[in-house]
Amino acid sequence: xxxxxxxxxxxxxxxxxxxxxxxxxxxxxxxxxxxxxxxxxxxxxxxxxxxxxxxxxxxxxxxxxxxxxxxxxxxxxxxxxxxxxxxxxxxxxxxxxxxxxxxxxxxxxxxxxxxxxxxxxxxxxxxxxxxxxxxxxxxxxxxxxxxxxxxxxxxxxxxxxxxxxxxxxxxxxxxxxxxxxxxxxxxxxxxxxxxxxxxxxxxxxxxxxxxxxxxxxxxxxxxxxxxxxxxxxxxxxxxxxxxxxxxxxxxxxxxxxxxxxxxxxxxxxxxxxxxxxxxxxxxxxxxxxxxxxxxxxxxxxxxxxxxxxxxxxxxxxxxxxxxxxxxxxxxxxxxxxxxxxxxxxxxxxx
Length: 350
Known about the structure:
- By secondary structure, the protein is an all-alpha fold.
- Helix content is 74%, strand content 0%.
- The protein is globular and about 70 Å long.
């Protein structure tokens, strides 16, 4: 059968491979040119090594996204999956740029930090959509279950009533991080411009200390609501093996956050000091660069884990219809999120 526009599934994959090879042909000479242009030091070596990991990470992630677009047979499940899969390339490219240009790190990291909240929310939507397809009246299923008490460390609080209340509060608990994280990120940018941010410096006079506490509390509560939701509906969720998917999301979000805190502590106690800044301007840039370098390496491992945990294979059907272009456009449609936020705000107001 000839490769025509109607037979796009036959030529789209070779096209992607071809474009990636062209990208490598362009990117590698640019990297070599950069290395020859300047005296090679630790900073440049770190940037070059991180770039190799980025070049290995991107095709794995984009291939998984493309396969979901090609086999876009269950939009209500695959749309949040595709949004989750975008986390790895966004983290990877963002960290690589920040590693090269530390002066703009706080600005490019804004995208990464906001997107992690978006990913947690989409994971919750993925679970809810799956359950809704299997159990149209999910609230009644919850009401039929035994009362679920809070998990440590919140076990001393009164349990949330089973049914609509539990469902609403778990969803709201995840959604609040989607709002808190962008707000604190904007505050961080303002504080940086006014000179009171003090990234990496645990000092009560710096805004960074308070924002870390707020973000951590909000993030932990969002993850707690996800764990509580899974514990209540474990039996219904088992067919999609949510534990591996949850760990993929949790490890990327939590590890990157706590790495930043650990590196800040290393700066505070003097393990990373002004005596070892290499080509960076100061110890703060060293800490930021170390965090970005480690993320570039970790994203390669995360891409492999996401490829298997969020596989496209369960969605492959013999009779497939639809256009890949339509699937691509649907991926960017955020009307569902806008409607969801409006509904949650209205419920809170009531």
